[in-house]
């Protein structure tokens, strides 16, 4: 939909009106037949039609183009009242700058920023409303440090709130201790398994060394026996040599 023509000061050229809603063009697009439309209007029209609503020439979304520059300039220079005129705003500015003004207009209706509050107030009155809003929050005046809503003042109990907070902290601490305990046990189990594995490997190596030592001792004994036998043979040969 376009801008309500009643908001404008002075005469508005017919060519700057939307051919569908007949209000002043908003975010305009132009068909090849040079008829202009609000973007929202023409897109909605083409959902159910395939021609221009003025001269019935066939058009398609892909054929729509931005407004001619001179028409765009004429459109931007139009003067109109702020949409908050009914609330007291007397600002009149160009169409080109109206959006910027209305985003900052002191007479704009804006929602209260307090969670749970559904009241809408003028921007200029927001601070006054926040000061008395029943959903406003503030720190407990008794010094417990809690943030409370004004509506909860009569129900707020510092001792109960602190006791609840203490229980939550205790529960959280217990959970953290349990997590740390489980993590430490897991690490110890992992280290224990690693040590058992290493011990097994070392035990196997020791057994292998013992086996090698046993074989070496057996070989040494065999060598000593062979040497003794060889010595006896030499002595026997020496005696036979002497007898001869």
UniProtKB/TrEMBL annotation:
InterPro entries xref list: Znf_RING, Znf_RING/FYVE/PHD, Znf_RING_CS, Znf_TRAF
SMART domains cross-referenced by the UniProt entry: RING (SM00184)
Ranges of residues in domain TRAF-type: 101-144
Zinc finger TRAF-type: from-to: 101-144
Keyword Transcription regulation annotated: no
One family name in Pfam for this protein: zf-C3HC4_2
Keyword terms, alphabetized: Coiled coil, Ligase, Metal-binding, Zinc, Zinc-finger
Protein's UniProt name: RNF41 ligase
């Amino acid at each position: 939909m376009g801008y309500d023509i009643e908001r404008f000061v002075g005469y508005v050229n017919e060519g700057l009106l939307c051919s569908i809603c007949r209000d002043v063009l908003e975010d305009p697009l132009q068909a090849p037949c040079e008829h202009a439309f609000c973007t929202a209007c023409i897109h909605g029209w083409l959902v159910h039609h395939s021609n221009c609503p003025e001269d019935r020439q066939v058009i398609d979304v892909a054929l729509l183009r931005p407004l001619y520059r001179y028409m765009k300039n004429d459109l931007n220079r139009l003067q109109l009242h702020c949409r908050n005129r009914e609330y007291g705003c007397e600002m009149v500015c160009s169409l080109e700058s109206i959006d910027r003004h209305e985003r900052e207009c002191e007479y704009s209706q804006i929602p209260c920023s307090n969670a749970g509050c559904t009241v809408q107030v003028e921007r200029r009155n927001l601070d006054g409303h926040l000061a008395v809003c029943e959903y406003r929050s503030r720190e407990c005046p008794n010094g417990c440090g809690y943030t409370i809503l004004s509506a909860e003042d009569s129900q707020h109990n510092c001792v109960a709130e602190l006791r609840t907070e203490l229980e939550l902290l205790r529960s959280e601490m217990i959970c953290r201790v349990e997590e740390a305990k489980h993590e430490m046990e897991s690490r110890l189990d992992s280290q224990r398994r690693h040590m058992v594995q290493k011990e097994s490997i070392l035990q196997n190596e020791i057994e292998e060394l013992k086996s090698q030592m046993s074989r070496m001792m057996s070989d040494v004994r065999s060598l000593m026996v062979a040497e003794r036998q060889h010595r006896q043979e030499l002595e026997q040969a020496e005696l036979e040599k002497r007898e001869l």
